[in-house]
Amino acid sequence: MSETPLLVRDVPEEALLARIFPLLPGAPTTIVGPGDDCAVVAAPDGRYVVSTDVLVEDRHFRRRWSSGYDVGWRAAMQNLADVAAMGARPAALVVSLVMPGNLPVEWVTGLARGLAAACTPSGAAVVGGDLSGGDQVVVAVTVHGDLEGREPVLRSGARPGDVVALAGTLGRSAAGLALLDAGRSDDGLTATYLRPDPPIAAGPRAADGGATAMLDVSDGLLRDAGRMARASGARIDVSSAALATDRDALRDAARIVAPGGDDPQLEVRSEDEVRTLLDAWVLAGGEDHGLLATFPAGIELPRGFRTIGVVHGAGAQGDAAAAVTVDGESLRTGTGWDHFRG
Amino acid sequence: MSETPLLVRDVPEEALLARIFPLLPGAPTTIVGPGDDCAVVAAPDGRYVVSTDVLVEDRHFRRRWSSGYDVGWRAAMQNLADVAAMGARPAALVVSLVMPGNLPVEWVTGLARGLAAACTPSGAAVVGGDLSGGDQVVVAVTVHGDLEGREPVLRSGARPGDVVALAGTLGRSAAGLALLDAGRSDDGLTATYLRPDPPIAAGPRAADGGATAMLDVSDGLLRDAGRMARASGARIDVSSAALATDRDALRDAARIVAPGGDDPQLEVRSEDEVRTLLDAWVLAGGEDHGLLATFPAGIELPRGFRTIGVVHGAGAQGDAAAAVTVDGESLRTGTGWDHFRG
């Protein structure tokens, strides 16, 4: 006996808000919470950091794979990672939700629960929001953080000689998405795609530990390292050996997803595809939201960070293509990532 | 000779951002502007107010009526009004923009110009944002304000005996929308719908002038006054005489829009419809974003405010329907607004 779920078009907005509000996490820094024209939030540091990120149905998630809880979790986490990447502690979120009338109310309360579950470990509150109808689900989150007296860690501060370090994982979200696309599932990797778990607390630790530059890896290691390198007027060289464990953790998934995967007749061709997939996931896969940071050489890395490369001067050519190298070689289109395969 | 406009799908995201960034207004309170994981904004007061509002294509605007500039202006203004309604000064906005690939680039740069034009008089900066593809245009703005040492003015502080006052206009946006719906235009009223101009500076003035409660009228006078009355445990009585000038200013538009309007054969039926429309626009029309505030009796109202009613005790029944009265009478469905007509 299947019951028709209650849909948002069947519920007045104020009744929907009354279901959502009790699910949202509060915090002692919230002076005025949801329900007035604005929330009022304490900024004891005299500054706040702020960022906004939007998730759009069928662009960033599919409802057949992601529950409301998953989308709420992910919307919160990708924003919390931006705060962490400045060296700040997450403090307050506001959330705009656009939704079609046929969205189940349970999806929306699930979203609120996912937001809450992702925010609670950081102590961040959801202090306000807006609801609207629309053709597809859109979740726009704005996040605020407290620098607690720290200087913000910008992406532009990397200096030649600095160590390049990473907290968190690489390629797991991309591998999880590829598994879902292939109609497969894996509790670990698909969970990273559906509910990424970036090392939020490592951001303030990195700032306290002397990080000279930091950003969160949302568009892939090479692309985001390139942004850091260009903003810093430097070149970042990544060590392929340092990423071997990241690759190894994804090998089984690549064997499943690669064309010819699971078919022993195609093993040879498939193994080449496996390497290509591993390169793509580890070097270009985003949305694990790990923290990429640089530290002066010789200092002890903060807990959770591991060395993956080194910062060099930009060199005479200083063009965009050479902003990032792997084992000293640039990865121009066509030359491939062969030196990275082993 | 008509030229095909450049579309957003033809332009890489970074190139689009490069066109947008120079158009966005800055402010001295911006410590770190757009381009890093977060912006950093000064909060000299040790607190900030924050609110978010979303505009969705075909729900809140139509592209055939509203240019990108109009939508940017309106998205900013409806958010700035929320800050003003707390008694705060607008300081910083972040903007998430979802857009279909066939949106002209010029529409997006127009949106940036409209945001800038609306923000500049208040001194607010646009400090960050996010771009995404999607099926329809969605503009989600989060606004931040500085209380400059003031206590926030909540909607819950109205006390029996207080004067109810309004800064700004009533019904002009609703009348402007009705004219557009009827295929007509009027420079003044349609402009209020397309580019509302709420009295932002009147918000801090009201707080300094002793306002006990305040909100911005976004959903119509009766509905928003009802929210204030219920939050305050009070009843708000509006004087119909005080709204006569608001009605008179819309009479010509109502004559055009009313069924039978413009047709002298239908003058009698039409005049009744005119009164119904005027009631609907002035009492239930939102989105002029005027500021509704209450002040202790006997004090001089801050510049820009005029008296439109008085606060009473909630009375024994205290039910929702009696939270607002007009000339002492409740406006239950079915009883109509006849006492309001003259």
UniProtKB/TrEMBL annotation, chains A, B:
Mg(2+) 5 binds at D219. Mg(2+) 3 binds at D37, D82, D216. Substrate binds at H60, E287, W337. Its EC number is 2.7.4.16. Residues 35-145 form the PurM-like N-terminal domain. Catalyzes the ATP-dependent phosphorylation of thiamine-monophosphate (TMP) to form thiamine-pyrophosphate (TPP), the active form of vitamin B1. This is Thiamine-monophosphate kinase. It comes from Cellulosimicrobium arenosum.
